[in-house]
Amino acid sequence: MTDFFTHLQWGQVPGYLAFTVVCWQGIRKWWNRRRVVALGPQKEVREALAAAKVLFADITTEPKRTDWFKSQERRYTAEQLRDVADQVGDRSIREHLLAAAQSWEAAAASAPEDMPYVTFLDAPPTALELAREAEDKALYEVQVNHARVGVEVVREAIRRMNDIERKTRGR
Predict the structure, then answer these.
(1) Is 1 a member of any domain?
(2) How many domains does the chain have?
(3) What digits encode the pLDDT tens for the residues 30-88?
(4) Cβ atoms within 10 Å, residue 63
(5) Count of CB atoms within 10 A of residue 145's CB?
(6) Domain range for residue 113?
(7) Average pLDDT over all residues of the chain
(8) 3-class secondary structure for 95-158?
(9) Cα(71)–Cα(168) distance, integer angstroms
(10) Which is it for the CA torsion 107, 113, 118, 120, positive or negative?
(11) Measured CA distances, 23 to 26, 33, 37, 170 (Å)
């Protein structure tokens, strides 16, 4: 049995076809390179977004006081998001990172102060304590709202990164 390709005579490839293939490969390489540059340092961006997502989720489950934001691990979260945003080339991801940093700062600013007073277990709450608790509840609501916005912004940034990565690597 003879093979079909052994009887096929290709001859010379026309010049315009070779030129078209070479141009297509060049455009494709440039387009993919543009996407890779748009992603920036992918590992750092993903780590910053994952850390911010976990911290925002912590705030939404249980609102935090000022001392929680002053902790060593969480003190520079907004700065880290801004630094990573400067390294990303995609405008949408950059805007999402900056919005997440703003949400983090707003959540930290709306955190109630540390509790400087001691309450006794059997004593009824004083008017000052009741007023402080009401004020803290209002601040907690604002803080949780900022954290929810932060979670949504981080999710959108991760979604956009996944979209660009999928287009670049084809998975």
Answers:
(1) no
(2) 1
(3) 877 777 666 667 788 889 999 999 989 888 888 887 777 777 778 888 899 999 998 88
(4) 21
(5) 15
(6) 12-169
(7) 81
(8) HHHHHHHHHHHHHHHCCCCCCCCCCCCCCCCCHHHHHHHHHHHHHHHHHHHHHHHHHHHHHHHH
(9) 38
(10) negative
(11) 5, 15, 21, 21
**CB count, 10 Å around CB of 75?**
12
Residue 73 is classified by DSSP as T
User: Is 154 within 8 Å of 52 (Cβ atoms)?
Assistant: yes
CA dihedral 21, 23, 27, 33 (to 10 degrees): 90
Is residue 7 situated within a structural domain? no
Cα dihedral sign, 40-43-46-51:
negative
Q: Average the pLDDT over 131-141 and give the result.
A: 82
Count helices and strands (H / E) in the chain. Answer: 7, 0
Amino acid letter for position 15: G
Please report where in the chains the tokens 């993903």 appear, as a residue: 46
At CB < 8 A and 24+ separation, what contacts does 64-69 make? 64/111, 64/143, 65/111, 65/112, 65/113, 65/114, 65/115, 66/108, 66/111, 66/112, 66/113, 66/114, 67/114, 68/111, 69/107, 69/108, 69/111
pTM of the prediction?
Answer: 0.72
In a domain, 2, yes or no: no
Query: Could you give the angle at the alpha carbon of 68 between the alpha carbons of 102 and 44, nearest 5°?
Result: 50
Residue 77 is assigned to a structural domain of this protein: yes
